TrEMBL record:
Domain (OBG-type G): residue spans on this chain: 159-331
UniProt main location, coarse: cytoplasm
Localisation: Cytoplasm
Name by which UniProt lists this protein: GTPase Obg
Entry-linked Gene3D superfamilies: GTP-binding protein OBG, C-terminal domain, GTP1/OBG domain, P-loop containing nucleotide triphosphate hydrolases
Source organism (scientific name): Ohessyouella blattaphilus
């Protein structure tokens, strides 16, 4: 079974707890608090590994967890941060939320590394809570817990050209002739059960070609391995539709073409509208009626703007002309990588829950606290532009800014959220 899908559970590390301790030295009878902070938990990070072409590493292990942060220590010693969990995937892998099937990340193009779950914030030691009125704080701020979710991994092959057609029409033989790929070839259906990639080298006009496993009727409804195969067509810019011109298995090549395109349309209407060229294969098996068969195919498809090239994957006849036509076609097409946009944002989903918060005013300092704020600061990276933008949007959408203004906050006043402090500006 080919490994282009997997479902796994990932969890980021929890933060280390802040420490509660007091300075104890021989000649310092009234030493203050010196409990150190806990370390931040490790993130869950996905990275593209160029040498990988399957998700087989995730078929036999389902749970993956980043390291927890270490607890803080005495003498203001901070705990070490937990190690990030780096998960390697092939280029073209989609990461989806298993529950909603929404895209979290598309590991394609320039996106070769993405943090999916952030580790929990480390707890604050009691050194942070000493005040003029409370000089012996016997508590620390709890650490943030790690995030956990189930995700689906789907590999969608990245190639310029996809080979499509019914099983046993000669796609693998064609690929082995025009590239250095070594697909399994045999005279029975479904020899290919996973996509094979190859590079066609045409003196500077090379392109990547993928042998998509044979489709059958009902593939768009999941019959056979339909959905598993069809997903790999989605990233191709054009398709070579291979037909068995010899009808050696008793099928009509014209009827085959329309059946396959019907499955493409049912799966994704945009797929069937992408450029196609027909490779009328196995002409080496045609004898007396070769010209008649090719004329029939050209009469059917070329008025629709679909070129027909008679070829033989065995002898190589006609392949040269086909490849140069495809290369020229691709060179005139807009180079626009097919990237699936992010639909699901784990941080927002985990923060945007109905949790309470409070706003207290102390000497013109507006103190905002509560589980909602604690979770926000625990899961948001304010050092990044994206994280800070989300922080600002969160304050507005959650009604915190409106409530601050109702309490009389003015520009330049201080807002304090646990360890975070900033001046308020509209």
């Amino acid at each position: 079974m080919f490994a282009d899908r997997a479902k796994i559970i990932i969890k980021s590390g929890s933060g280390g707890e802040g420490h509660v301790s007091f300075r104890r030295e021989k000649y310092v009878p009234n030493g203050g608090p010196d409990g150190g902070d806990g370390g931040r938990g490790g993130d869950v990070v996905f990275e593209v590994e160029k040498g990988l072409n399957t998700l087989v590493d995730y078929r036999h292990k389902r749970k993956f967890r980043a390291q927890d942060g270490e607890q803080g220590g005495k003498r203001n010693c901070s705990g070490a941060a937990g190690a990030d969990l780096i998960l390697k995937v092939p280029e073209g892998t989609l990461i989806k939320d298993a529950a909603s099937d929404k895209v979290i990340a598309d590991m394609s193009g320039e996106n070769t590394r993405q943090i999916i779950l952030r580790g929990g914030r480390g707890g604050l030691g009691n050194q942070h809570f000493a005040t003029s009125t409370m000089q012996i704080p016997k508590f620390s701020k709890p650490a943030g817990t790690g995030q956990e979710m189930e995700v689906k991994l789907e590999l969608k092959v990245i190639a310029d050209v996809g080979l499509i057609g019914f099983p046993n029409v000669g796609k693998s033989t064609f690929l082995s002739r025009v590239t250095n790929a070594k697909p399994k070839i045999a005279n029975y259906h479904f020899t290919t059960i996973r996509p094979n990639l190859g590079v066609v080298d045409l003196e500077g006009k090379g392109f990547v070609i993928a042998d998509i496993p044979g489709l059958i009727e009902g593939a768009s409804e999941g019959v056979g391995l339909g959905h598993d195969f069809l997903r790999h067509v989605e990233r191709t810019r054009m398709m070579i539709h291979i037909l068995d011109a010899s009808s050696i298995e008793g099928r009509d090549p014209v009827e085959d073409f329309y059946k396959i395109n019907e499955e493409l349309t049912n799966y994704n209407k945009e797929l069937a509208q992408r450029p196609q060229v027909i490779a009328a294969n196995k002409i080496d098996l045609l004898y007396d009626n070769k010209d008649e068969v090719i004329a029939k195919l050209k009469a059917e498809f070329e008025p629709q703007g679909i070129r027909v090239f008679p070829i033989s994957g065995v002898t190589g006849e006609g392949i040269h002309e086909l490849l140069y036509f495809v290369a020229d076609k691709i060179s005139t097409m807009e180079v626009k990588p097919i990237i699936f946009p992010q639909e699901y944002f784990p941080e927002e989903e985990l923060i945007n829950v109905d949790l309470p918060y409070t706003i207290e005013v102390e000497d013109n300092v507006y103190v905002v606290e509560g589980p909602k704020i604690d979770r926000l600061l625990g899961y948001t990276n304010l050092d990044s532009e994206k994280g800070f933008a989300f922080f600002q949007r969160f304050l507005k959408d959650s009604g915190i800014l409106d409530e601050l203004e109702e309490k009389g906050i003015e520009e330049g006043d201080t807002v304090k959220m646990y360890g975070l402090q900033f001046e308020y500006f509209k």
